[in-house]
Specification:
The chain has two domains: about 1-80, no CATH class; about 85-123. The chain has helices at about 10-20, 25-30, 40-50, 60-65, 70-80, 85-120. It is built from six helices and no strands. The radius of gyration is 24 Å and the shape is elongated. The chain is mainly alpha-helical.
Length: about 120
């Protein structure tokens, strides 16, 4: 794989043009004079983030970025395997927070009932 002669800032700007400004990959690639199929890791991660974090449909991201849905699914799988431990930590935290929410909700309900009971007696 050949090393690119473009600066990191130039590459980031190209990724920004594609992901934030919704320019087509082919258009940006043509302007930069590079193959549209040599995507940077940052571009791939941004594409996957649009699907996983921003909840865009794969077909929509695929069309907007000019890459095949199959390629997006491959990137999603690749980056989800790479961040597997982070996902486990998040799952554990979600379980903990759900338990805490249930406990706090139960405490709130008890306090509501106690308040109603004592308010009724005060009248």
């Amino acid at each position: 794989m050949s090393k690119s002669n473009f600066s990191e800032e130039f590459k980031r700007d190209a990724v920004r043009q594609i992901t934030e400004r919704s320019y087509q990959v082919a258009e940006v690639s043509q302007r930069l004079g590079v193959s549209p199929h040599s995507f940077s890791e940052e571009f791939k991660r941004d594409a996957v983030r649009q699907i996983t974090e921003r909840s865009y449909q794969v077909a929509e991201v695929s069309q907007r970025l000019g890459v095949s849905p199959h390629l997006l699914y491959e990137w999603k799988k690749k980056f989800s395997l790479a961040s597997g431990n982070q996902g486990n930590d998040q799952s554990e935290e979600i379980r903990h927070l759900k338990k805490e929410l249930a406990r706090v909700t139960e405490e709130r309900d008890i306090l509501k009932k106690a308040t109603a009971y004592f308010a009724r007696d005060a009248k």
